[in-house]
Specification:
The structure holds two protein chains of two kinds. Chain A is an alpha/beta fold. Helix content of chain A is 29%, strand content 17%. Chain A is globular, with a radius of gyration of 19 Å. By secondary structure, chain B is α/β, with parallel strands linked by helices. Chain B has one domain: Alpha/Beta hydrolase fold, catalytic domain (Rossmann fold), CATH 3.40.50. Helix content of chain B is 29%, strand content 18%. In chain B, strand 1 and strand 2 form a beta hairpin. In chain B, helix 2 crosses helix 4 and helix 4 runs parallel beside helix 5. The radius of gyration of chain B is 16 Å and the shape is globular. The chains are: A alpha/beta, B alpha/beta.
Chain lengths: 327, 220
Amino acid sequence: MEGDERAAAVDGRAGARADLLVVDDPDAAFPGARRPDRRRAVDSWGVELAVAEWGDPEAPPLFLAHGGFDFAETMNGFAPLLVEAGWRVVSWDQRGHGRSAWAHLYNWEADLRDAVAVLDTVTDSPLPVVGHSKGGSLLLHLAEALPHRVSHIVNIDGIPSRRNMPDVADHERRKMVAAELEAWLEHRRRTSGKVRRAGTLDELAQRRGRMNPRLSPEWLRYLVRVGGRLDADGWRWRIDPTLRMGGFGPWRPEWSMHRLATVGVPLLAVLATEPEVMGWGTRAEDIAPILPPGARVEVADGMGHFCHVEQPRRMADLVLEHVGAAR
Amino acid sequence: MTATPEPRWVHHGHSTLALHELRGGSGRPLLWLHGLGERTPSSVPAPVAGWPGPVLGLDFTGHGRSTVPRGGGYTAEALLGDVDAVLAAVGEVSIVGRGLGAYVGLLAAGARAALVHGVVLADGPGLGGGGVQPSSPAVAVPGTTRPVPPDPWALVELARDVRPPDYALTYLRFAQERSPAPEPVLVAAALRPDWLAAVADDPSVRTLPLAEAVGVLVGG
């Protein structure tokens, strides 16, 4: 996404308001996809989050979390299949993502608080939670922090591991960390007060293709139409330009992986097999020693990190086998 | 001496930060980084009174006159970005950091080694953070969320952030490899959370009283 944050001298300050009402392209369509039936805003300690819902508002709720650099409407193909089984699917754009407000700051605790703020508007009873990638890892934390709020958990290729980290000597690793540090700081210097670069619909789809190399151009163009913003100078992604993939810090993948052992409700972990830039490459043998009793691991052979987009029917069937039908 | 009434403003991400000039002059500035919940003092702190050049103080995000964010999200690395915004504005500095400011100062000394001409790590609020590995996850909420400095979210989150010793040592190594200062990191703190104990135990790092450590920076 490096080239995506080109300077455009317009107001890029963090806003408090979610962008719920603007429909940039009401005709956006993709086979099998359905845009949210309802949208609403939830205030999470001053940051307004955009919530998207599919299905009967009176149906039992299922909580769905998207991955990093995604947004709720990346579930437009997957969520309706859960609705067919009677669920009310509730998702939200994480702070700085999609239609939610940009925040001044981002960290894991804040994302967890935001998830709870949305959950508090849905139900106090335990409910099934399904998360992809970062969203899956976030929900593992939720299940440990607030176990009384979760009935089942499904993690779709969202268990971090060290497997996709290069196997290099310490001095080489230090050079890589130094380079990453410098790149992050330079990014911070460049993006102060900036917004993302505008482009044509095809240009934005091509940019996203670097993150989603296995997904079809038709889907990527659809994502631009449902997740981009159409300004006078063209389309631009809504995500906060201060956010950046990768990064550095004290966090270690195994710290999140080990959360698995704490889960006390039925757990389904889906692991994709095809390597991708956004994936962790975690294998079943990596997590076998720390799985809680009764956990199910499903290896999604031949599928990439975005398996719920690649094969939404297959992923929905797995989820529904695990959580059951709502009716 | 008193602080300049109106600070210089620098920008980092979506925040606007107050950079106070506690004393003017020429030469390499000393940058004072306050502790968690503190702000830049109104005059040059006594231990750095002997510094021969300008003395600056940065109010971290959520502190003093800097932006108080909405909804928290603090990391020490974000505050490293605050310091880097100062380096972009003023160039090379030496740093004295208290508590949280000591930890962030170490990160800056490693991450921007060519621009940080030595850092002194001193006692102060927020020195320890949340220990060497994550505790059980919790939805931690401060007792008040009034958006006035110091930001209650900063007080909660930066008392819980993880500071592994090997992570701190990585920054020490960067500083040792690339800083222009003969002694890029000096320890003046009496307290030794694990990250700081690892740094202080390095054979190349001296422990000195604060004013003496500042004197080493002057000489370097």
